[in-house]
Amino acid sequence: MTSGDSVECKKADPFGIFILNTVMFIMSTMAFNLNNVDIFSSGAFFAFMAIIPTAEMLRAARALLGWNQRQLAASAGVARPTVYKLETRGVIRGDSGREIADNATLESVEAIVQAYETQGIEFIEATSSTGSGVRWRTPAGRIGEDPSEESVKKKK
User: CA 88, CA 153: separation in Å to the nearest integer?
Assistant: First the structure.
């Protein structure tokens, strides 16, 4: 083939290119979602909660109810040390200045948030004009009951 030879090139079908690009976009979106499934291990988690609550928000929600950590743990079905760890994230404790580790699972956070929401507490996302926080979901306030005495008793 010399420089004087001509090569025929088929014109691309615009509709075919559109379909190909659309399929590639859908496949890349699916791949992204599938690769990030482990981040959202509980599918229902974000269905009822738009934000992951901070330690301060969790303590404020418990204060609204007037519960201690044992009552919250019993209501949520998690261990009391889990509640403690979530409420003290980033807080330095003790003379050694050691930071408390946050190793609670997403399922534990979900259970605690569901326990709060059962009582009528709502977690509020920060906006450009207001900060994040907690509040009663209804004007009447609390809608749930305290956990039973048997479920709250200290385990020996």
Answer: 22
Hey, is 2 helix, strand or coil? Answer: coil
| CA-atom Rg of the chain in angstroms | 26
In this predicted structure, what is the pLDDT of residue 18? 80
- The percent of the chain in helix, strand and coil, each rounded to the nearest 5, is 45, 10, 45
The pair of structure tokens assigned to 74 is 């019993």
Give dist(CA 124, CA 130) in Å, integer.
Answer: 10
Burial of 94 (0-12, 13-18, 19+ CB in 10 A): exposed
Cα 69 off chain centre by = 20
Percent of the chain residues past pLDDT 70, beyond the cut: 67
Q: In the chain, count of helices (H) and strands (E)?
A: 7, 4
**pLDDT surpassing 50 at residue 69:** yes
Q: Which residue in the block uniquely carries the two structure tokens 């003290």?
A: 88
| Short-list 152, 137, 134, CA closest to 75 | 152
CA distance 50 to 145: 25
Confidence of residue 125 (pLDDT cuts 50, 70, 90): confident
